[in-house]
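Hi C.,

You asked whether I'd gotten around to modeling the 657-residue construct. I have! Everything is below, sequence then structure, no commentary in between.
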Amino acid sequence: MTDLWSFLLQTLTASGAAVFLLVVKALFRDKLSPRWQFGVWGLLALVLLHPAGQGGRYVLFPWPLWLEAAKTALTGDYSITRVTAPIPLPFGMGRPEGILDGLYLLYVAGVVLLLLRYALAYLRLRLALRRGFPADATQLRRVAERYGLPLCETVEVEGLPSAFVCGVFRPVLALPAGQAVDDKVLLHELLHLKYRDAAWGLLICLFRCLHWCNPLLWYCAHRAGNDAEALCDQRVLERLEGEERRDYGRILLSMASEQYARAPGTSSMANGGRNIRERIEAIARFKRYPAGMALASVCVAAVLLFPLVLGQGQTLAQATNLGHSDEREFLTAMASARLTPCTTPAGAFDAYGKAVIEQNGIYRALCAPLDEHPALAETMEAFAHGPDHWVHEHWESGLPGYPDHSLGYFLYNLTQNGESYTAMLVFPLQFAYLDGPDSPPVYESEEGWHYVACQEVRAEEQEGRWVALPLEEFQIIESNMEASWMYSGDSALPAAMTYAADLDGLHLEITYQTAHQVDNRVDAGSTLSFGPPSSFDATPKPSARFSTAHASYSFTGTELTPGAADLVNRFAAAPVYADGSGPSPQFGSGQGSSSDGTFWGNARDYGGLSGGAGSGFGSDPNDPPAWPDHYRVALSYVDGRETEIVELWPVEGGDSP
């Protein structure tokens, strides 16, 4: 906890878990044993020890979301509140600035002072025990041998109201000097010693210090301490029979008005009148729980484990149709965008593509670097409060036209560059603004082709989240805009790689493209569906993975020497990868292709030296893309000469994958 907000996140998260446990404990008060009643506090201890909000998860209530929205509203800060440790770390906060830093330092001072107070109390108690004298251990050994319990150093001290165990690593059993101590009291303290209950008391004191200004957690600490004593009572009663149990209750009742040790690292049978009354009520309900109840207790605890310890992931809050005056909803949506990071490159590309399509700044914030959030928010605020009163999430991406929402976007030529990825995002347009946003919309070119907008985008990991960074302005390209893009490519779009070579008066060229896709199909309600999906899901998927990936390749041969193409009978091509692997080019009948990336054609009967097709990637589409290192092309001739095989290499300037 390095600032006031991180402390608030930690203590509020623990408070929600505490309320939940108190309700559950009340429901099972008479149904589950004292072992469960005390042991279930371990779940709260896990919540207190685990940094709140880590991994983008929250416990029971979306405290991180509410706190982030409040922080931005009060301070204008769009950074993420991070709890790096469940203890205060003031040394990394820098020079205090403003009242919030002052309040945090006040909190830290309270932690330190309370720790010192408890430490001094413990030291005074240990010094007092040193003034004692060794006790006669005859009675103590008899009780320990009877019940099979361990022993420790025992001293008698003047003025003690009751017996107690002090210390964790070198425990001491302190007895009041000059007073007879009942065997059942010794049994109680030896059971504390066996189960090291003083250590639990020390941990409870630590939580009191860390959350000294949270009365709810102090109340829980008090309840946990009393539950520890009630559990020890249960263990005593399980070892006693008949009248001894009633005697134990009377002894406990006689201690109701006695003082007791309050120092950390101690355990005492006497723990205050009100607490003892509750323990006597528990003794009155004492029963030996059947063996099956242990399994039931474990099952209940396991059910509680999931919401309290594992938590649940943050999801994007409402990010559409935010009214221009919906300030609270806007801040909440921006907070959820910070807390719902894109966890995959595909998720970052998907969020960016949908931000462009929907002109949605909240979607853009999902995949934008955190240092861009203030400027994004300012832009959206300006649109919302401007003369046109746009919806609060409105954002201008610079898209030179109106997108086709039924097609969404396509991701072309994905390339891995070290730890980042680049790709061309392609947006089919219903109409384009060829000469700027104020020019009339143009629906198709003179040749009847439609328009697409393209932009190269890089996805990289920053501060534990994947972000999308546009590398250029949008370009408008004429395209056939068919759904077969995913499978056969589009010659109007740039190639991922171009391979070329010259042979026998011919210039041979293969253009290679790839297309990756996130599954954004929406069920249209019909079982008969052919071609592209009828509806596109425009909601970002920050943890998306690519569902499909296809490669397309197009082969052309142009004449350098007139008549050279007329001599070619058939052609075949096959990819060769960097390790030398790959299929061999095989001639086939007509035009065709194979799933291994080979293709073939008949130059004389099927339109000359041109061909190609597409195929799916044989590996996981989320693996780093492996493009062919080069191609082997085989040509057969009509004049009967031997088949020629030539290797086509990337042209100069081509990027190696």
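If it helps when you're writing up: The radius of gyration is 37 Å.

Thanks,
B.
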